[in-house]
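Q: A reviewer asked whether we had any structural model of the full assembly, not just the individual parts. We don't, so I'm hoping you can provide one. Inputs are below.
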Amino acid sequence: MIGSLAWVVLLLPLAGALVLGFSGSAEPPKALTRVAGVGTIALSFAATLVIFFTLLGRDADDRALTTTAWRWAELGPLRIDLALLLDPLSVLMMLVITGVGMLIVAYSTEYMNHDRDYRRFFAEMDFFIFAMLLLVMAANFVFLIIGWALVGLASYLLIGYYYDRPSAVAAAKKAFVINVLGDVGLVLAAFVMAVKLDTLDYAGVFGLAPEKLGHGGLIPELIAVLLFVGAAAKSAQVPLHTWLPDAMEGPTPVSALIHAATMVTAGVYLVVRCNVLYQLAPHASEMVAIVGAVTLFIAATIATVQEDIKRVLAWSTVSQIGYMIMAAGLGLYTGAMFHFLTHAFFKALLFLVAGVVIHALVGEQGIDRMGGLKKYLPVAWATTLVGCLAISGVPPFAGFFSKDEILARAWDAGDLGKVLSIVGLVGAVLTAFYMFRMFFRVFHGPEPEGGYAHAPHPSGPAMTLPVIVLAVLSTVGGLIQVPTVNHWLDSWLDVSLMADPALEASHATEWRTMTMSVIAAAAGIGLAWFIFAADGGRRRVQMAGAMPALRRFLLDQWRFDPVIDDAVVAPGRDLGDAAYRGFEPYGSGGLVRGGVGVATAAARLVRATQNGLVRMSAFGLVVGLIVVAAAMILGR
Amino acid sequence: MPWLTLLIVVPLAAGIVAALLPSATARLVAAVAGLVTAGLAVAVLFEFNRTVGTGQLTEHHGWASEAGLEWTLRVDGISLWLVLLTAGIFGLALVAGFLHMPARGGAQYLGLILIAEGALLGLFLAGNLLLFYVFWESMLIPFYFLVGMWGSEGRRQAVMRFVVYTMVGSLIMLVGIVATAFIARDVTGQFTFDIQALQGVAFSDTQSRWLFAAFALAFVIKLPMWPFHAWLPDTYRTAPIVVTVLLAAVMSKAGVYGFLKIGLPLFPGGAAFFQNVLVLLSVVSILYGSLVAWRAPTLRLVVAYSSIAHLGFILLGIVTIDGQALQGAVLQMVNHGLVVASAFVIVGIITQRSGREKVADLGGLAEGAPWLAGAFLFVTMASLAIPGSNAFAGEFFILIGTFRHHWWAVFLACLGIIYASVYMLRLFQRTMNGPRGQVSGSTVEMRPGDFVLLVPLVAAMLAIALWPQGVLRTTGPTVDRVLAPAQVALNRPASQVRARVPVNPPEEALPLPGDPEPTAPTPQNTQVPTP
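A: Here is a predicted structure for the entire assembly that you could use as a starting point for your response.
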């Protein structure tokens, strides 16, 4: 029963996308687009809820099931089915994808109302949700990879939504190519598994791996590293993170759904899903954790100097995913998923309110042309404050509990854990600082010079309502897992985490970390207040010239882009040019031209009997037959 | 019903008739003949028994039997799909010809296309080496005229290069064919050109290597594989777009098919000997084709060079000698036919309607051409083998199998996958996106006739993407049989060899007069006699 429902959940968004995509050349009535675009996601969410509560009512051991459509391919011992897996982990992801997805798509009905190609927007959003569901519902690595690539395609389409804008086109291509690099990592990992284990089903791989691959050997480490290449590309981890800030070229709801709440966390999902493999690969796991920590720090520093409201949020997303990846690498799988969940709420919230602000200012995104908006947009002010408090880790908002869980359990997870926990704490200070920098500069302080051309207008109900729902979730979402009080998420995910080391922090660590987190958040917020709000913003102007070299470095985003361009892109381009201009006309072409010359000369010699090369062909045939016939006669 | 003979005779006869008719009637005859042939191919699919790995629906008639040339036709799990591909793509080409006939010599044009179809179908069905050679050479003639008479500027030089290049290979192959029959006679005491009867002949290592090399050279030129590709860019550039579609989608499979029909099963020792060289050259083809496609200036050249890369993948799947890889390669032959055909159709639509060949002269076409943009996006994604596309399934299987034996080749080939996304997106974005170029989108938008061509291609691609097993389950037994001798020659573990290796002459055969005393033969040493 819920097996069939799984297919309904998956295919409804696809149906929405197809109906919208093929509904003729003319733009259909907007009401129809809304019904098809939002209605399918809402139904999909409803079906997911039914699945969730059905599983919740069952015994913990009975909460995983596979449903197969057909045998997709059979190659000797390797059998690949088109099959879906419902288990606590996939259902948690499905709830977020369809639930938050529904809110964001509903929000878009108003946000995109005056934009171009209304129908195309919803077709592509629905397609994204289909692909993302396939990614998390797949029961084997092949369909994981297919979902993985299709979300990349959806992301490409939506980043390049304004396809006549060169910067959007370039950003879309960059995102796509880096994600293909990630896909290659996944496929290579799949090759290793297929060759070593003769199966690509999760059940088969996770069942056989511990016995056949062993612990800490080269093969499990290789698989884990290759999988992480995919995860890092999708989840924008250093050094494959450069596409995500550029991806802000897409409309704001896209940034909220794809580049904050769901798709970019697919890497976290992947590591958590493959927890069995990562437990077999201690070195790869450490590498994952370190990459996450490095990413969270670098991204947080860059976020402190961004002047575009969406880019602040983009770098903050990179940084927050760094926390999740770090947690997953340390074996804190529940912590990673917990932070994914709360982050989906508060980051979607922050992007959507940013959209409200941008909408109110008719497309303006620079925070230095904002200020004093509190009096025009009180709801946006309040909800942004909720989001900023949640991400900064102020109790009792959602982010406090999830970030605290990661930092506390990391502290008790060995020496590396201690170091990374401290990095996370430093990151928390930076997070609070850059978020409140944005908050104070947008909503407080003086209005920009010359004031606003038009009074900023608050949004309508379709945009306001999802924002309020997300604000509520960002406030109370952390309560599902409160240290020493309840462990709902731990017990829910237990079935999916077959190799969970189940690390727990001691009480002493819990309390110490909580205190430190609160101090970190307070320090960050206080500093932001001191610079950007306390003095009416004048102190910011005085400090603008301080530390120009560091500022330059951060504005250049640690110079990843030019270095990657010089080291990776340019050599390939030059090689291609050399091949096309150098080798093609003279190299093999020269050889052939010489060959043609010789052959033509030879043909001229026999022109008395031959006329052109086609006859030569026939001639060759005849000669051949004569040779054969003669040989036969002689051979007898 | 003699399905296989009909498959060859119908297009050949219709081609000759059409060429003599006035163009108005000719185009009708040609389109009907194209559709009837496609129908026959589907009939063969239904007649086919997919549990059998050897040739079936055999037809055998004497022809010039004294010379060993016999009308022997067979279809197996591999040629079945090539026949379907050929009949399908040519059917579409003839429908396209029905919709837009060239102003000059339309009847002859369509007639030649039909003759080319008959020759290609004959090639894929031939069960006799000489018959194979006859069709191999005779397909060159219609293509020579199609490019030489209806091509664009520079066609003379291009077609000259095409013919000379191919001829060099095929004449060497002819020598190889004759030599094969004679040497085999010395081993088995039986003089035959029948391909099935020649399987399992215990050639010496040297013989096997030289014979394999003679055939392989013809095949890699036809593919083409780097560095034998020099005929391809100019030919694809100057040929009428429909002919380019046929060359890229169908004719390129002739070389690949040769490896499967003759190279591996007849000369396993040679295939094993040249394996590493061929793996390396396929990888070079992938990388070279991808890099040049990235920098190529015109739309057609991008697709032409990408085709070299794609064929490199297919060849890699064959020469790696692995069941999974070969399954993937056979699947990818069909996929490549569908993908490259639709890519050239779209390139043809854009270049003909806009009058621009260069990527740099176009831009922003999506505005005003949403259907074309959608179709182009689909084809772009299929061409870069995005997971979920039909081409992904093929590449994925090829690379799994290759990984088992040549992991380094897979890592290099994966660079080709990344480059594919770069050059295909460059092609798509530079033409469809960005600020509007010299031509507006509405001039190139799809017209009803275009849908007739693209919808079947897209439908076939989707069907394979969703259910590759539909193809794999028919090719499996044939692939096992084709591969087994070469696997034994390479001393692969017995668990990977999934078919019986034929032994020729059969072990129970009486020794011929003058034969050396038989040394207790095992399957191993009858396959690979130690010198």
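A: Points you may want to mention in the reply: The first helix of chain B runs from residue 3 to 20. The two ends of chain B are 47 Å apart (CA to CA).
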